[in-house]
Design brief:
Subcellular location: Cell membrane
GO molecular function, one term: ATP hydrolysis activity
Number of domains: 2
Order of helices and strands: EEEHEEEHHHEHEHEEHHEEEEEEEEEE
Family: Belongs to the ABC transporter superfamily. Sulfate/tungstate importer (TC 3.A.1.6) family.
Structural class: alpha+beta
Radius of gyration: 25 Å
Bound molecules: adenosine-5'-diphosphate, magnesium ion
Strand order of the largest sheet: 6-7-8-3-9-10
Largest sheet: 6 strands, mixed
Subunit structure: The complex is composed of two ATP-binding proteins (WtpC), two transmembrane proteins (WtpB) and a solute-binding protein (WtpA).
CATH class of the largest domain: Alpha Beta
InterPro entries: AAA+_ATPase, ABC_SmlMolc_Importer, ABC_transporter-like_ATP-bd, ABC_transporter-like_CS, Mo/tungstate-bd_C_term_dom, P-loop_NTPase, PotA-like, Transp-assoc_OB_typ2
Helix content: 10-25%
Distance between the termini: 40 Å
């Protein structure tokens, strides 16, 4: 029997605040799914409802065929790593890690054995008698993880677990946590507001905005095919071109001030609507000779412009180009910094139609 996790039409009100608004998603057993969104969008509340620390106002949470909506946290095969770690500062590492086993009446001999095993797994073997406040932030994070894993949950819920660590340690831990998830084969539901972290670690990303799901998909789907302006701007950098979307029998295009160019037709967009098109900077290539206008074909868009600014960042450069009333950024890898164009020079930008996403809202 599969133990996919289903969050089904879940809404949570706190008084007048609708923290989570009709959210549904499935997490396939053994996968790593991230809830991503800005502060206040409902990530923690969603996780706490899966863990059993909050009850949904409406909606159900099921694991396989088992409806766990009304079960207490300790009755569920889930375990949560809290943002603040929530360790007992005056208890030892061993007492902290063994706490969940004690609550479940696991005999002390077995408890000691399982605590020792899990401390090995998080690479802090033999630290049972250490005091929590002697440990570094990174070590405390591992203890919080060990304490959640020791009860052998089917689903591990992690609320911004790396938020308190410095950047280098955080990057290392991202890779370690992902490896650990693959090794253990258990389901991870991970919460972060950090888009890079989500792209690095996840099999799938669920993007939340103001209590609702904005889009879900693999990291590549989310990055390469954002459906809304919110997603396009929240994940990575992008160029947004605003204009009038025109759909005809022979194809669609965007009228954008003095320029227009073909776009992939979007059935969700109405002809004549004012909307935005998103093009990732690395999808925009730049040539330094300005050919005469009208170079676009049905699939290759070519527009003449003028280099406004060149921002050198070591391995990459961002070249700002003025095209009519719009500005576009072209990003490229830098091999020789002497090869970069000079501001004021004429140029041509080019992208493929499939890389321009018509955003519906
Ligand atoms: N216990 C609570 N009482 C009242 N409002 C809450 C409570 N918990 C969360 N909220 C509100 O619900 C919204 C979502 O919060 P939260 O789930 O913590 O978001 P996130 O984790 O994405 O930052 C916010 O507006 C927050 O202020
Ligand atoms: Mg939160």
């Amino acid at each position: 029997m599969s133990s996919d996790l289903h969050v089904d039409g879940v809404t949570k009100h706190f008084g007048d605040v609708r923290a989570v608004d009709d959210v549904s998603f499935t997490v396939e057993e053994g996968t790593f799914v991230t809830l991503l969104g800005p502060s206040g969008c409902g990530k923690t509340t969603t996780l706490r409802m899966i863990a059993g620390y909050e009850t949904p106002t409406t909606g159900r949470v099921t694991l396989g065929d088992r409806d766990i909506t009304d079960e207490k946290p300790y009755q569920r095969p889930t375990s949560m790593v809290f943002q603040s770690y929530a360790l007992f500062p005056h208890k030892t590492v061993g007492e902290n890690v063994g706490f969940g086993l004690k609550m479940r009446d696991v005999p002390s001999e077995e408890r000691d054995r399982r605590v020792a095993e899990i401390l090995e797994l998080v690479e802090l073997p033999g630290t049972e008698d250490r005091a929590i406040d002697e440990l570094s932030g990174g070590q405390q994070q591992r203890i919080a993880l060990a304490r959640s894993l020791v009860i052998e949950p089917e689903v591990l819920l992690l609320d911004e677990p790396l938020g308190a660590l410095d950047l280098k340690l955080r990057k290392n831990m991202q890779v370690e946590l992902k490896d650990l998830q693959e090794e253990l084969g258990i389901t991870f539901v991970y919460v972060t507001h950090d888009q890079e972290e989500a792209l690095t670690m996840s099999d799938e990303i669920v993007i939340l905005n103001d209590g609702r799901i904005e889009q879900r998909g693999t990291p590549a789907e989310i990055y390469e095919s954002p459906r809304t302006r919110f997603v396009a701007e929240f994940i990575g950098d992008t160029n947004l071109l605003d204009g009038t979307y025109v759909a005809t029998d022979s194809g669609a295009y965007l009228e954008c001030g003095s320029v227009e160019f073909p776009v992939e037709p979007n059935p969700a967009a109405e002809s004549g609507a004012t909307l935005s098109v998103s093009i990732r900077p690395e999808k925009v290539s730049l040539e330094e000779s300005a050919a005469r206008n009208g170079g676009s074909t049905e699939t290759d868009i070519t527009l003449d412009g003028v280099v406004d600014d060149v921002i050198y960042q070591g391995n990459v450069a961002k070249i700002h180009v003025r095209i009519g009333d719009s500005e576009l950024i072209s990003e490229r890898h830098v091999v020789n910094s002497t090869d970069l164009p000079t501001p004021g020079s004429e140029c041509r930008v080019r992208w493929t139609k499939e890389h321009a996403d018509v955003l519906v809202e």
